[in-house]
Specification:
Its EC number is 4.1.1.20. The protein has 444 residues and is an alpha/beta fold. 30% of the residues lie in helices and 24% in strands. The strands form 3 sheets. Strands 4, 14, 15, 16, 17, 18, 19, 20 and 21 form a 9-stranded mixed sheet that branches. Strands 5-6-7-8-9-11-12-13 form an 8-stranded parallel barrel, surrounded by 6 helices. Strands 1-2-3 form a 3-stranded antiparallel sheet. β8, α6 and β9 (150-157) form a beta-alpha-beta unit. α5 packs across α6 and α8 runs parallel beside α9 (263-281). The chain starts with 7 loop residues before the first strand and ends with a helix. The structure holds pyridoxal-5'-phosphate and lysine.
């Protein structure tokens, strides 16, 4: 397993993260446990800002909170001076509860409800990324009702396909997101936005997908959207346009084979493409916004599990089960995502067997890792799965009424609990039994 950030194997032969021995984390907080390397998250956020500083462009880095959103995470992002991208009333509420500066919040989503829009308008968020005509009209009307003007970016589907899993490729024209260019919808949206009371069209947005390892797709999208930006300013009276948001999607290393680019390389490529396009079109440089999610938290997260049962089918396969699985990490089941693991309590031992790591959910597809090379695994061992910081906790479920794990931030030899472990009482907390179904119980 590749060790990221502050992760290392200590003198006791244990995995240590943020200066804290993983076996101590397990004794204190139990398993499954999501462990986040706070320094690595901070360093990555700083690396994004440092990379932009060298470009000379005005920029904003907005953390895409869908990757991992909790109160503590919002505080961390605020401390590092990044903006925040939210896609639901729940994420917005979390950010506001954490006292995240509302003017640095962007609101995404292809079906924002009237309630969510009102909530965001009342909070005075920085901008809405408007996805469709229904939303444009609704937002305008609600803003007028509240006596405010909302800053708006239009989300475009630039027709760029990237090499990633189909479910996370989002820039295609045949996608539920955004206004497509070829049908004329995007042009119509600009014309409509400049006419709509209650909104001010300040920018254009595109997002081509996630876990992207190359810069070609970004360059293509930038070229397409910049031409459209020029038309919007010069032909369709969008004179307030200043923001050019190219979305997120920067890839990370999940396995030894993954070879993402350095942050610096992604940003340089984006900045160069923006400058080239805007120079060619004779336009003033815009403020460039990016929305990284996975790349800020992905490698910083490690999930610790306890090994339980195993099943050897001689000559076929050995299954080793852990006390978590698709309920805390649905990505292998959803996207055939591949992860790496190590035994956190026996980290110096050499691999001696190939085993497949099964989750505990009642699904044959609940397999976390196929064919992991590990030392002879025994019940009670601590299995660490790396790079689980993005889209794990945030996509976790209570399937099989499994309680969600706790989350800790570790740094400088300290561990802070940032999300409590769910109890079974938490799992049933919102259930209601109608009185008529209690009859048998009450009469006993
Ligand atoms: C609009 C938008 N911005 C940003 C992101 C974050 O992407 P990533 O986590 O790949 O950086 C996503 C998710 O793919 C997205 O849909
Ligand atoms: N949830 C996806 C990526 C994010 C898609 C958001 N637009 C994943 O786990 O890879």
């Amino acid at each position: 397993m590749f060790l990221h950030g502050t992760s290392r194997v200590n003198e006791k032969g244990h995995l240590e993260i943020g200066g804290v021995d993983s076996t101590e984390l397990v004794s204190k907080f139990g398993t499954p446990l999501y462990v986040f390397d706070e320094q690595l998250m901070r360093d990555t956020m700083r690396a994004y800002k440092a990379a932009w500083e060298t470009t000379g462009l005005r920029y904003e880095v907005a953390y895409a909170s869908k990757a991992f959103c909790t109160l503590a995470m919002c505080r961390l992002v605020a401390e590092e001076g990044l903006a925040l991208d939210v896609v639901s009333g729940g994420e917005l509420h979390t950010a506001l509860k954490a006292n995240f500066p509302p003017e640095l919040i962007h609101f995404h989503g292809n079906n924002k409800t009237p309630d969510e829009i009102e909530q965001a308008l009342a909070a005075g968020i920085g901008a809405f990324v408007v996805d469709n005509f229904h939303e444009l009209a609704l937002l305008g009307a609600l803003a007028v009702q509240q006596g405010v003007v909302a800053d708006v970016l239009l989300r475009l589907a630039p027709g760029v396909e990237v090499h990633t899993h189909e479910y996370i490729s989002t820039g295609k024209e045949d996608s539920k997101f955004g206004f497509d260019l070829s049908s004329g919808a995007a042009e119509q949206a600009v014309k409509q936005a400049v006419q709509t009371k209650g909104v001010r069209l300040v920018g254009l947005h595109s997002h081509i997908g996630s876990q992207i390892f190359e810069t070609e797709g970004f360059k293509l999208a930038i070229d397409i959207v910049a031409k459209f930006y020029a038309q919007a300013v010069q032909e369709w009276a969008a004179q307030d346009l200043t923001v050019f948001n190219v979305g997120g999607g920067f890839g990370i290393r999940y396995t030894e084979e993954d070879a993402p680019l350095q942050i610096q390389e992604y940003i340089e490529a984006i900045a160069t493409a923006v400058k080239a396009s805007f120079d060619r079109l004779g336009l003033e440089y815009p403020e460039v916004v990016i929305e990284p999610g996975r790349s800020i938290v992905g490698n910083a997260g490690t999930t610790l599990y306890t090994v339980g049962s195993s099943k050897d089918i001689p000559g076929v396969r050995k299954y080793v089960s852990v006390n978590g699985g698709m309920a805390d990490n649905p990505r292998p089941a959803l996207y055939q995502a591949v992860y790496e693991a190590m035994l956190a309590n026996r980290a110096t031992e050499v691999p001696s067997e190939v085993v497949s790591i099964a989750g505990k959910a009642c699904e044959s597809g609940d397999m976390l890792i196929w064919d992991a090379k590990l030392p002879a695994v025994q019940a009670g061992d601590i299995l660490a799965v790396s790079s689980t910081g993005a889209y794990n906790y945030s996509m976790a479920s209570n399937y099989n009424r499994i309680a969600r794990p706790a989350v800790v931030f570790v740094q400088n030899g300290h561990a802070d609990l940032v999300v409590k472990r769910e109890s079974y009482d938490d799992v049933v907390a919102l259930d209601i039994v109608p009185a008529r179904l209690m009859n048998g119980v009450l009469s006993k």
